[in-house]
Amino acid sequence: MKKLNTVLLALVSVGMTSVAMAQQSEKEPGEFYIGARLGALSLDSDRVGYKEGTLYPADSGFNTLDTGLEVGFMLTEYWETRIYYDYVQAGIDGAPGDLYGQSFGSDFLYHFNDMVYAGIGVNGTEVGDLSDAMVRATVGHREFINDDLSWRVEGGVQRGWELDHTEFFANIGLQLWFGEPTAVAPKQRPQVAPQPAQPAEPEPEPVDSDGDGVVDSKDNCVNTPMNYSVDANGCVKYKDETIREELLVEFDLNSSKVRESAMGEIEEMAMFMKDHPQLELTVHGHTDSTGEADYNQWLSERRAQSVADALVKRFGIAKNRVSYKGHGESQLKVKENSAADRQENRRIEAELKVVNRVPVKR
């Protein structure tokens, strides 16, 4: 029976989650559905049944599982009828094992609105080869996932007139809808004697309270600033604006030490990163073409690391936001024909950019 409670709780959770996507959908006469049911019964304490020729008392707790199918039909906008069949599995009170049976019947349901309904019906409930004819009262709640699929949860009480049992039930169901609404003749409007024409009142002058060029009756954004452009609905127009921050630091020959004169540019990059904490930076190190390629690769990595360390240790940028990479002599900035050309190639480079949405001014 613990498994029964777990299944019911899981199914109710699924049904409640569907509320987020549910929509109201008023069904018309002539439409019908086929549905699946899962629920639980709280059997009467006097309910008994046979198992292998022996009579046992049924578990009277809310632990009896019933699963089945139902078919329903909309009679009118408010009245619905349905028939159902459930397979019943009840525990034995004080002993292992289960009693099996079935429940089948029909209901007439009245819908107070698109979601809440109540009804009355008759059924036969059998447990362990002993059955009772019963009258059942039901209240329920239904919501639609789309026009063709709905879920519902309901509960109620049933009372037997043969074995004098009183039992309670709760279940949840999923219903698939079919059919076309029954055509209803349009109502004839009563004829009304024409009234004498009244002189038309002059229409009031349109008002533009915030002076943005869009009258109040069409203005969805009131009190927009006077210096901003607005769209046809009176709302501020925006455009994308790209902001870039570039960093270029040169180094002395065979050196990876950052010149003190370059700290100002590094600080500007640090301030840009603090203003845009979502950005991460990669520092790219380079050398000129003199020397061995392996040495130049090592030197370019040292130069990139020196600038990365300055950003982290001197200007407080988080270490996980800064990385570095050396390119050796593979990416010369200029073709080397002089000492000045080689100086331009002894460098690090880094760039950040961010796209902001900014208002368009008049």
TrEMBL record:
Signal peptide annotation: 1-22
GO cellular component: cell outer membrane
Transmembrane parts of this sequence: none
InterPro entries: Bact_OuterMem_StrucFunc, OMP_bac, OmpA-like, OmpA-like_sf
Region entry Disordered, spans: 185-213
SUPFAM superfamilies per UniProt: OmpA-like
Keywords: Cell outer membrane, Membrane, Signal
Location in or out of the cell: Cell outer membrane
Pfam families: OmpA
Chief subcellular location: membrane
Extent of Acidic residues compositional bias: 202-213
Composition skew (Low complexity), residue ranges: 185-195
OmpA-like domain segment(s): 238-356
The name this protein goes by in its record: OprF
Source organism of the structure: Idiomarina seosinensis
